[in-house]
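Take one protein record:
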Amino acid sequence: MHPHPPTRPAARPWIAAGLLALACALGATGRAGAQAIELKTGEVVPRDVREMYDRGLQFLANSQTEQGGWAGGGEQGAGVTGMAIMALLASGEDPNFGLYSNHIRKALRSLISAQDGSTGFFGGSMYHHGFAMLALAEAYGAVDERDLWPDGKGPRSIGQALELAVRSAITSQKRNPTGAWRYSPSGMDADTSVSGAVLVGLLAARNAGIEVPDEAIDKAVAYFKSMTSGAGEVAYTGGLGGFGESVARSSIATLAYAVARRKDLPEFKATLEYLRQRIDQPNHNYLEYTRYYEAQALFQGDLDAWGRWNKLTVRQLKESQLPDGSFKGQFGPTIATSLSLLSLALNYRFLPIYER
C-alpha cells in the first residue's frame, strides 16, 4: 500500500444531480406509491421521502457536538460518527458547499482524530472500525481535502486515514484463523455481523481506489460461505451449528456476496431467496440495523422485491418518526436515525456503495 495515496478523482460525478432516482423507489404512500418503479435518471424523489429524510438530517445536524461526534442517550464512537456521515452524504447535498457541508467536515475531523495513527484502528470494536472505514471510503474524493483541516494542519488526509484503516482490518484478519473478524482486532474467532461491517468497509475502500488484496476478500467470502446454509440461513458464530432465523444476517451475507461480485455463488442465490420469502414478515430484533442491510441486499439482488419492501418500510418509518426528526432505537437516537435514513437513502443513490 502507498503510505500517501493519491487524491481520488472527483467523486463518481456525484452521479450528477440528475440521479435522484426511482420515482417510486421507496414507494411512498399515496399517489407516489402507485407509480411504477423505474431505473431512470432525472426522476423526482417522492415528497414523503424527501421530507422525512430532511427532518432526520436536521436532527443529526442539531445534535452534533462541537467536537464533531454525536452523544447523548446511546452508543457513541467512531462507528456512530461514521453512520451519521453516510446519512449526511447520502441525500445528495453538495458535501463541500451544501447545507450540511460544515457538519460533514466537522464529523470527518472527529473521525480521523479518533484513529490510532500507528495501528489505524478506530477503537471501541471492529464494528466501529468497519463503519468508520465505510464512511471514509464514501467521503474519499467527494469531500475537498483543502477545506477539511483549518490551515491544513490535520493528522492525516481522508485517503491516508482510509489506507491505515484498511491495513488495520487486514492485519486483524491475518491473525484470525477464521479469515474474518470479531469484536477485538486481536480476536481469534469471528461472527457474521462484525465481519459484514468490516468486509463491506473493505469493499467500499477497494471501489474507491484503495489497494485491498484479493486474498483478503476471498478469505472473508469463504468465511461467509461456510456460515450459509442451503436454505439461505446464515449462522452468527460457531460454524454450522449456529443457524437460525435472522433476516439481518442473511441480508449482510447477500450484500457481501453482491458487492464482492459473487452473485454467481449458490449461497448468494440462497440468501436472496430467503429474503424474498420474508418481505412481508415483521422484524422485531435489531429493527433499524436489519432495515439498513435489507434495503441494500434487496436492491442489489432483486429490484422488484426491493420496491415492494420499500413501500412497506416508508409507511412504517413515516409512522415512527418523532417530531424532532429522530427515530427511537435500542442503541440510541443517533444510530436509529442514521440507519433509518440510510434505509431510505437508496431513493437517492448518491453513495458509491449503493451503486449496482
